[in-house]
């Protein structure tokens, strides 16, 4: 388990994650920082879900800034895949049995009752909360399907967010599709790493992902720096008034701290 979150139900806890594979193994000008990438890909750790939970893929980005001020950009697609290990499923059910036993004991203790007189002395509120606990806070290995979070990440020298997002989504569809893509997955990964060049300043580049073409554009020397993040999302997340306030603080060269879950 990652962190001290034992009071949470097992499906709401986070567990330690690790890098399963990365390619290429290393690049001289951009050495692979396994700990940093692992933490930034899954900042909250590994998580589990069941068929009853929302498992829609989520995309986020991060920046690694080195001591010399150089930056690399990471784009991450997090999805959930079915747990096929019987051992992990059994361990999850054991965690739930232990957790529910602790909750049962705490409900009993708050009612000031003994185990013999639990049924008669537990009040209606505690009984309702216990019923909800058993209904919504459970995992049954014979009934439920367990899923675990997994990430695919693309690390780039420039923040081509839209292009990376489209490529990762197409790669994810190829992995989860019942019909295999036209070429092996390794071909598409090799293509974007070794055969797709960075577009020259002031030019755009069109390359093919797994299913559809992808276009990325690089600003010229006299243009504003590359900002491939959609402004609409900023307005939706912050709201108009907050965004105007942030913009005012930028113009006044004030220090700004954005805090988010």
Structural overview:
- The chain has 261 residues and is an alpha+beta fold.
- The chain folds into 2 domains: 1-107 and 131-157, no CATH class; 183-253, no CATH class.
- 37% of the residues lie in helices and 17% in strands.
- The protein is built from 8 helices and 6 strands, in the order αβββαααβααββαα.
- The chain has helices spanning 34-41, 86-110, 118-121, 124-136, 161-176, 185-195, 231-238, 240-251; strands at 48-50, 58-65, 71-82, 146-156, 204-208, 213-217.
- The strands form 2 sheets. A 4-stranded antiparallel beta sheet has the order 1-4-3-2.
- α2 packs antiparallel against α4 (124-136) and α7 (231-238) crosses α8 (240-251).
- The radius of gyration is 24 Å and the shape is globular.
- The two termini are 20 Å apart.
- Residues 117-122 have low confidence and may be disordered.
- It comes from Nyctiprogne leucopyga.
- This is DEN5B protein.
- Residues 1-261 form the UDENN domain.
- GO terms for molecular function: guanyl-nucleotide exchange factor activity; small GTPase binding.
- InterPro entries: cDENN_dom, DEN5A/B, DENN_C, Tripartite_DENN, uDENN_dom.
């Amino acid at each position: 388990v990652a962190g001290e979150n034992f009071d949470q139900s097992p499906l709401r806890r986070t567990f330690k994650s690790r890098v399963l594979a990365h390619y290429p193994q290393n690049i001289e000008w951009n050495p692979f920082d396994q700990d940093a990438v692992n933490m930034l890909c899954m900042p909250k750790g590994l998580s589990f879900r069941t068929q009853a939970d929302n498992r829609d893929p989520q995309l986020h980005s991060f920046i690694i800034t080195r001591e010399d001020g150089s930056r690399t950009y990471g784009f991450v697609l997090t999805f959930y895949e079915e747990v096929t290990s019987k051992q992990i499923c059994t361990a999850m059910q054991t965690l739930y049995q232990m957790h529910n036993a602790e909750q049962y004991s705490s409900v009993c203790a708050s009612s000031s009752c003994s185990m013999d007189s639990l049924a008669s002395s537990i009040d209606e509120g505690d009984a309702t909360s216990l019923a909800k606990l058993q209904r919504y806070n459970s995992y049954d290995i014979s009934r439920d399907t367990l899923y675990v979070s997994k990430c695919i990440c693309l690390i780039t020298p420039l923040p081509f967010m839209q292009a990376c997002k489209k490529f990762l989504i197409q790669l994810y569809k190829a992995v989860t599709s019942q019909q295999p893509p036209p070429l092996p997955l390794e071909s598409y990964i090799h293509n974007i790493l070794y055969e797709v060049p960075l577009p020259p300043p002031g030019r755009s580049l069109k390359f093919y992902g797994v299913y559809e073409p992808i276009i990325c554009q690089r600003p010229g020397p006299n243009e504003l720096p590359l900002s491939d993040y959609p402004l609409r999302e900023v307005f939706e997340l912050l709201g108009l008034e907050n965004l105007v306030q942030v913009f005012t603080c930028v113009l006044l060269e004030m220090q700004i701290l954005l805090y988010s879950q």
